[in-house]
Amino acid sequence: MKRQMNENKRAKSSLVNTELLEQHIREALERRQNTALKAALEGQHQANIADVMERLNTSQRRRVFGALELERQAAVLGELPPNLVREVASPLKVGQIATIVDQMPMDEAAQIVPLFPRRRSVILEAMDPQHALDIQRLLQYPIHSAGRMMTERFVRVHKDWRAAETLVRLRRMNAAVETLTNLYVVDDEDRLEGVVSLREVVVAPARKKLGDLMNTQVVSVTPETDREEVARLLSHYDYLAMPVLDVTGRMLGIIPVDDVIDVLAAESTEDILRFGGVESGPVDQPYFTIPIHTAISRRIGWLLLLFVAETLTGMVLRHFESELAAVVALSFFIPLLIGTGGNTGAQTVSTLIRGLALGEVSVRDSWKVIGRELLSGLLIGLLLGSVSYMRAKFWGSSDALALTVSLSVLVICTWANTIGSLIPLLAQRLKIDPAAVSAPLITTLVDATGLAIYLYIAKAVMGL
User: Fold this and answer.
1) For position 432, which CATH number holds?
2) What is the pLDDT of residues 206-263, one digit of tens each?
3) Is position 240 within any domain?
């Protein structure tokens, strides 16, 4: 509890500092005081500066970026979303962009250079030749692959090194290595033989060889592995970095866990937007930087499709117009039934999409999943049906109407749960992102079919 309170305090402190930084930056910009602007930026974390820049207009962003020193510009550029990177860096000359990118780690630089497609080749030509070669090597891999994320700044060691010797060598290594937590044991051809943690080396006897300390059961990925799979493996095995190997087992690089956290956040944002029927676009684009016409264009497609699909509900109502006219009280329970079915189906879809994303469920489990959700829906329907019967009686409804509502809730919950399990599994089989279709589709289907179920049961029970 105490730890949680401390974390909350730190989060609040960070928020206050960012708000205070924004205030100081805005004051300096309004007064056009470059000295005050540089003083406000001095010592600030690049992530906080990037957060503030997202809330400024274009002119203000460029002025803030221009007030930063070269190394700070590179750090801040690595924190900005792609649309703002283009916005602040576009006015710069090729040589200036190249100089800034030269200060960035190769994996971050490989994300920046493609944002300037027309100047990409000249930027690379103006950069340090070795750094440019490293970036071009990463750019040959697919956009969302492990190859695009990896860095070559990791520690290579050999199995014949002794613990004391290894510590001496580590002190002489390049300080720019990405992580020292794990040391990667490679042979003379750079093929991975095992991994040993720095902790084991520190506490081991001085003459202990790394070959005796290393773990040879290492999980790795190829450069073409999708970044979501990399994130899943890192989470599953609790690694702090994932080694990337080619088909021959040669060590190409590592993907640190902090880079994967960004991937998880981006993928989660993308799934949430798709789950709500919104075309996600660049998932790390801040809310206030998205033009209104872009926001509308991302939403209107699904809304139009669902608008047309929802006419099924109107068709059902028209088909049972005489029954509704005969027993007006039937219409009182329509929102309750449709809402209950939609909520039940949405819960099932959410749970199943999570299981699919984490690899806990696969298409081969379809019948098991359907059976489980069918039983769950039946039990939920029995519970909610009993409550709905009492609610209908409390409103003064007849026994026949109360029974109709109760049975409808039972059938609709069972149906919604079952169809809610089918849609994500079917989407997965058809190679469609389940999050992109499941939520909007389940809502539309349950609205129309649930209403039909209700009115057919009413016709049977009440003799309409």
Assistant:
1) 1.10.357.20
2) 999 999 999 999 999 999 998 888 988 888 888 889 999 999 999 999 998 887 776 6
3) yes
